[in-house]
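Dear support,

Our group has been running a series of protein-ligand predictions, and this particular one with magnesium ion is the one our PI (initials K.S.) wants archived with full inputs and outputs. We had some confusion internally about which version of the output was final, so please treat the block below as the authoritative record. The input we submitted was:
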Amino acid sequence: MPGEFDFISWLRQHQSRSPLVRLGIGDDLAVLKLPADDLLLVGVDQMMDGVHFDSAIHTPRAIGRKAMNRNLSDCAAMACLPAAALATICLPKGVGEDYARELYLGMTEAGQPFDCPVVGGDTGSWSGKLVVSVTILGRSAGVEPVTRSGAKPGDTIYVTGPLGGSILGRHMTFEPRVKLARYLAGSGTITSMIDLSDGLSRDLANVCRQSGVGARVAIESIPVHDDALKMSVPNLDADVVAQTRVAFDHALHDGEDYELLFTSSGTPDVGTRIGEITNTTGIIGTYRNVPEPLTPRGWEHTL
Ligand code: ADP
Ligand code: MG
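Confirmed final output from the archive:
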């Protein structure tokens, strides 16, 4: 029976490299050399079978890609450049080495366009389901990190793409908005940013809470993804107005769009304007000129 050590020797032979990595997979720790004036940004994001993916449907390659892309999306949210990643995989006993290799190849494939290699990790097997955890190292590379806490009353709120209905498949295949984030942050008028993983309503609430501000969102101005439209059709009997509202609700509350939500004190040349930051607390939505409280309904893990 091949084991952990066969897999690790395969990893050593198949690791991708980057100029920042002095020593990658194979030793007790990896060694990186970052340019001296870089800030180091660090984060981790885990995925569990049955919550973030379904191992009965999704291939290990697709699961690996998503595990890496979620972390690259966090880099986008902070406007840093991905530098390297570490991956721990907790495999159900008996899935085999090929499955582990495919997971790893999915991660390296997703990291490649960003020069972000997997430089280490840990491998275990157990009687439970698949758990994949990726730790990401990012660097500021000349752009000050953008936080969730900088939104100011009067700022305009933007999103970078159409939202809603990601469960139809996009939640596995999205592209992290790293380049766009760097461009926006480089322009100097971005005051806060977050990637839309838990749903617009919840992620905007996080920005507002952490910035100590409120917001007003013009619901009709939210770009709605075709997937959200598809999901709104079967719900209702022929009432187009009501169907449209259901599609907006998908755009507001579904998670895992992995577009960026940002606030700006200027007028950026990318993004769709959806509202503005206010000096009250709480988030108000307006739909057809009627105000309504916008309560977060997006994803939350209950503990
Ligand atoms: P240790 O027991 O010293 O922690 P391991 O045997 O767990 O070492 O790992 C050996 C090498 O393989 C290390 O460089 C580690 O980072 C790497 N590694 C182990 N599992 C993975 C994985 N799933 N993905 C990437 N690298 C891994
Ligand atoms: Mg180990």
